[in-house]
Amino acid sequence: MKYLALIFDGFEDEEAMAPFALLRRAGADLTVASNKTEVTGSYGFTLANIALIDNLNIDDYDCLIIPGGAHYKFLYQSSMVHEIIKDFYKKNKYLCGICAAPTLFGRLGLLENKKYTCFTSMNDDFKGTYTDQGVTVDGKLITAKSVAYSLEFAYAIIKETMGTDVLNRVWDRIYHEK
Predict the structure, then answer these.
(1) Among 44, 58, 156, 173, which residue's Cβ finds the most Cβ atoms within 10 Å?
(2) Beta-carbon contacts of residue 63 (< 8 Å; ≥ 6 apart)
(3) Does residue 69 contact residue 122 with C-beta atoms inside 8 Å?
(4) 34 assigned to some structural domain
(5) Number of domains the chain is built from
(6) Measured between alpha carbons, how far is 69 from 78 in angstroms, rounded to an integer?
(7) Is residue 89 part of a domain?
(8) Rg for the chain (alpha carbons), in Å?
(9) What is the domain range of residue 77?
(10) Percent with pLDDT over 90 in the chain
(11) What is the pLDDT of residue 177?
(12) Residue 178 falls within a domain, yes or no?
């Protein structure tokens, strides 16, 4: 399984870095991509060696991860990002978003008849069932409410895409109490 994460300037640092680090710890083949090779988060952390989206074959990936943060404004305006998200959904691949990111899924009509969560004040009538939980899984849709749930978001992605045994190995390595 190959994982693709999309981040742009203004991403929420913890919503990106915590899941990325835990996925790599789990052995995930993770590509972090953007429209440039260095991206700066909301709190000034810059990630380098970012893959350029234009150089990727999106069909090579099985799971799309989008953190929240102020970059959601760019996500809303980018037809390229919209096409990537819709392609993952149409092909029944994993679609994962935290905080503001699930609202983009909703605006694209992808939350209809689905259970989901997102940053509470950004929830709208997306014709699905808003759960107001930290993390919600509905088939291959994994959503999380806010930065406070960054670790749980990562755990859900690992469990759903790699299995409980891999998640338990990660927990053992970080001394997580089960």
Answers:
(1) 156
(2) 1, 2, 3, 4, 93, 94, 96, 157, 161
(3) no
(4) yes
(5) 1
(6) 15
(7) yes
(8) 15
(9) 2-173
(10) 97
(11) 84
(12) no
